[in-house]
Amino acid sequence: MTPSPVLRRFGSSLRTIHHPSRKVLSVTVYRPVISASASASASASPTTTTTTTTTTPQTRWSSHAPMGPASSQQTRKPVTISTLRNMYKKNEPIAMLTAHDFPSAFVADSAGMDMVLVGDSLAMVALGMNDTNAVTLDDMVLHCRSVTRAVRSAFVVGDLPMGSYEVSPQQAVQSSIRLVKEGHVQAVKLEGGVDFASTIKAVTTAGIPVVAHIGLTPQRQNALGGFRAQGKSVAGALKLLDDAYAVQEAGAFMVVLEAIPAEIAAIITKKLRIPTIGIGAGDGCSGQVLVQIDMTGNFEPGRHLPKFVKKYANVWEETKRGIEQYRTEVKNRQYPAKEHTYAIDEEHVAEFQRLVDEQSPKKRQE
Ligand code: KIV
């Protein structure tokens, strides 16, 4: 490829190449040839370089500068579907957490999550909606893109929102393709068991890995009579087992079990040959998932939390404390202090002051 005039002039400015999820990039770098002759200095020779770097450290001169990873260190190998299968074979628990934007994904990945889920719970925890029904595929694509820009190692799954897959298997395939092509996720998740087996089959046949989700399926809360635990009767538990077998046979590589008794989840997990990921389903599952905002305590005290949530941190309190202190310091003129300002030579300030004082207000406006 011939370098553009801009590339010719500025040479190898393509130092930071950050692909959302793939870590090893083959990059064609145009190096300017420095010589005495003007025409020679404008030429560029392409070289193909393989690099394992995802980003270069950045100095943030502006509050709007990108937040990209602070370190170029690739600390973990990317988690692939084979990694997850191996963990399952070795009986190693799989840790999954939700993320809905760049910072929440960045911290989840940095903390060593095996999987990051861009769950449609973002409707409630990030978009302020009452339930997950109103979130659209466009919303999901936007949030998936933001998450996958941050994640360097974890395996990222994007949720198919209500209305994006129920109409037909073809609709599900089209929506899944959008999440992969535009959202850059590695797999999709959809709610449903026996009734969605043909849908799961169609999506997996298109080459997109599927995580199924059975038990309490929040998108169907109206049909379920609210956010209620499932599988509490023998008939209910048998229905869950049927659902689990159906999604496995349809090709799902993993299944989320939400809000079901631990004993039932453990029995179902033993019967399957794909990993189960529990949320409110006890410790007999192959792994666990939680909603990040819940487990980090990033909500106003007093909010109702599902029984299964364990609060591991108090992000709300700490954030509020900092913001209150900032407010106080702004009001007291304690912030910004000298160290938060840019330096300038005293003579420049004096000269500027002199010029300003010299000019009449009218002249200054001209
Ligand atoms: O939307 C979501 O976050 C989920 C998890 C709770 C499993 O589906």
Automatic annotation (TrEMBL):
GO terms for biological process: methylation; pantothenate biosynthetic process. Coiled coil: none annotated. Its EC number is 2.1.2.11. Residues 40-57 have a biased composition (Low complexity). GO terms for molecular function: 3-methyl-2-oxobutanoate hydroxymethyltransferase activity; magnesium ion binding; methyltransferase activity. It is an enzyme of class 2 (transferase). One of its GO terms (cellular component) is mitochondrion. Residues 40-78 are annotated as: Disordered. It catalyses: (6R)-5,10-methylene-5,6,7,8-tetrahydrofolate + 3-methyl-2-oxobutanoate + H2O = 2-dehydropantoate + (6S)-5,6,7,8-tetrahydrofolate. Belongs to the PanB family. Catalyzes the reversible reaction in which hydroxymethyl group from 5,10-methylenetetrahydrofolate is transferred onto alpha-ketoisovalerate to form ketopantoate. This is 3-methyl-2-oxobutanoate hydroxymethyltransferase.
